[in-house]
Amino acid sequence: GKRGKGEGKRMWGDSVQHIKLSRPQQDQYITPSLGFNVLTSHGPSLAFPHLTEAVVVSDVAAPKTEKGSLPCLALKCEHTVIQTKLCTVGRHAEAATILVCLTTGGVQLWDPLQGKKLASVSIPEPDPGLNPAERQSFCKGAAIIPRADGRHSLIVGTSSGQLHAIEADDFRFVYDCKLEGYSHTSPIADISSTHEPSYMEQVLPPQCTWASACEGGTICVWDATLLNPLAEMRAPGECITAVRLRANLCIASTVLGKVIIFNVEGRSIVAEIQAHARACSAIAIHPLMMIVASVSEDSHWVVWNLDGAEKQEIEVIASKNVKDKMFCGVSFTGEQGKDLHMVSFDTEYLYHMEGDMITADRPVVWPHDAAMTSGR
Q1: What is the tens place of the pLDDT at every residue in 324-333?
Q2: Most buried of 94, 186, 203, 221 (most Cβ within 10 A)?
Q3: How confident is the model at residue 254 (pLDDT cuts 50, 70, 90)?
């Protein structure tokens, strides 16, 4: 994709805020696990995995402790937590928030604000005939999607490349079925829908679709109502780390540091960006606009304007390096997605870039850091 300089003003400030995290009533800090796409957000809340715990920041704007740290909850999940996902059940404006914890021992559902476990759901083993070492698997990738008649399903991926549906209504979570008709043979890397809870209602299409991506480079797009596959796209030679859907575009990040943009209807790659020098560990899409943030193990975060992606007109509209930090998660946060939060492996900080409100007469514009590395 072509790169250009962003124009205009976007007041994020000249520096990145470092916000320390701590457990309640303990002088012990918490860092995210090393992985891909580990940070999830909804409203003022953030969550990420830490070993056998799910760490929840209920409100990123909450008062700091006497030592200047931000208190958080550490939910004990017993098994190693691979990924967390803040999801919602119900109508977009009135939905209840659920924390989905994807672990080596199945799926756990929590009330993230009260720290109360709602349910545990076991996922069938891929092949019960294998010995315990060979059939060891874990869950990764999740989305709660609206179905027909006001129902909801929680879709979960596994390291064996399978997809499973769990009934998710009235705070009851019951295993439903294994999905069929897709071509994933590698571990599921991520699952995302057009109706993610962080997206604003203005960008939600009438019909929900969702995407599953595996480490083998295959992406399947599904109809949410009937759970039927609609399209399949491939990125040959790529290992996908995260996937996002917006309108007719599907955006994926890869271990080779790329951000790849697909046209879903055409089932084709429309743009391929060599975004980072090392693995692109996470991406996030703005809740209102066609703007994507990517972070990497190369210590860089970048914000991309993808309005012209199908014409291969792509702008780098923000970029910065935070020395020696292996970023592993990113989310647009704040009202109308005006801020960015990121996390880095083996660091007890949230990284926060504060922005301005987006108004109809002043579209969002981001700062441009000319110090782009030659590796991207």
Answers
A1: 899 999 999 8
A2: 221
A3: very high
Assigned token pair, 159:
């390291």
Longest dimension (CA), the chain: 63
Q: Please return the burial class of 21, using the count of CB atoms within 10 Å of its CB with bins 0-12, 13-18 and 19+.
A: buried
Q: What's the Rg (C-alpha) of the chain?
A: 19
